[in-house]
Amino acid sequence: MTELDRLDLKGFVTNSVQRVFQTMLSMSLTPGEPPPRERIADGRHIVGTVGFAGTVMGNVNLFVSLEFAREMTAAMLGVPAEEVGGEEEVKDVVGEVCNMVGGDLKSRLCDAGFPCSLSIPTITFGENFHIESKGWVRQERLGFQNSRHPALLEVYVKIST
Amino acid sequence: MALKVLTVDDSKTIRMIVKKAFQPFDCTLIEAENGVEGLAAATREKPGLIILDITMPVMNGVEMLDRLKADADLKDIPVIMLTAESGKDNVVNIVKKGVRDYMVKPFKGEDLIARVRKILPLAERATEESPEAKPAKYFTRIDDIIVLTLPAKVTRPVTVEIEGSLQSKVKEMSEASLKKLILDMGGVTETNVSLIKLIISSIQQCQKSGIAVKLVATPKQGEELKGFQETSALSVTHSIEEAKTAF
User: pLDDT band for position B129 (50/70/90)?
Assistant: First the structure.
């Protein structure tokens, strides 16, 4: 078993996601079974991604429906959902949430002896698209649910060669 | 004199949260979205405090910090890092570079203010503002662009107040050779006659002084503006970033 296998990625990232949603969005998320992507990707949805690279490489993908993303944006900006402006604001908020979760994970990896750097977030937005990550040593799929919407977080990590 | 606070973050949302946190205090917020813009703003504005992110495109926060500390005119400006990265080595390295505090996202606005108060005194914004202070209420500056942010509700008295403020601001802009203004109505909750009159008078006032104006509105507001004869032909952008690009 390698040092990377010993890390409790699942527990750590679950706490991180819950803390980010609670602190920045005043939103409680309950961890649960990861929903099938199709449940979120039924219609317009958004995927926030941050990558990290160094002695380990990987990425963090956050999948939410567009409706949930708009609610997240309203919560973070402190405005009613109907007052959320254009797509740019929604993308910015999903990207920033992803950046906070990815930043936390990156810091945890650095502290565990895997120094790496974080990328700026990227956003994929639309419908009928599929995102796939291959060749990873560790993969975690984490499901969350708020009162109305599911969210899916995927984490991929591998040792750099 | 208001404390100038420079917030450097590639996320507009984070800049907005920082701005909101400082709202009750006598501060002028200046925004920059990467290290290059941040350095330029720091050189130009000589802020009393910089709130700095790390992971940003173009130039990251660590490089900006290095350059600040290497500049004799800027090295003493207190810097608080506000970043998603909390790794021990990372924090130690950055603290060694001379930052005053290091705050990890996620964060609450009030926690940021508590950290700032350990470094600098913050004066509450006066409830009864003097006429000279009024313009500052609606205006912020991004690089060489002045942003006029309209309040949620635009009534006749608000229109009169903003028109008066704009008059002083336009004069100030002309003296400083600033020629771009963004009129941001994205936060207005009701499109009414007072708002329409204010948009038109603001655009006319700026045009008279050779100031270019871009209007920021939500798609819904854009449709509503088309319903008024006076504003039906106005072109609308949907975000500050889009408006900046449109100049």
Answer: very low
Side by side, which strands form the sheet with B3-8? Answer: B101-104, B79-83, B49-52, B3-8, B27-32, B139-142, B145-149, B180-184, B212-216, B236-237
User: pTM of this prediction?
Assistant: 0.68
Helix H or strand E segment including A5:
helix A3-6
Structural contact between residues B210 and B173, judged by C-beta atoms closer than 8 angstroms: no
Phi-psi region of B142 (alpha: psi -120 to 50; beta: other; left: phi over 0): beta
Helices A66-77, B12-22: inter-axial angle, 10-degree rounding:
30
The residue among B7, B9, B11, B16 with the most chain A CBs within 10 A of its CB, best to mutate, is B11
**54-93 in chain A: CB under 8 A from chain B:** 73, 76-79, 83, 85-86, 88-89, 92-93
pLDDT in tens, B181-217: 999 998 888 888 888 888 998 998 898 889 999 999 9
Look at B239 and A93 and tell me if their CB atoms are within 8 Å.
Answer: no
Nearest to B51 by CA among B85, B9, B11, B84: B9
B164: Cβ contacts below 8 Å, ≥ 6 apart: B134
B165–chain A nearest CA distance, Å: 26
Amino acid identity for residue A58 in this structure: G
ipTM of the complex: 0.88
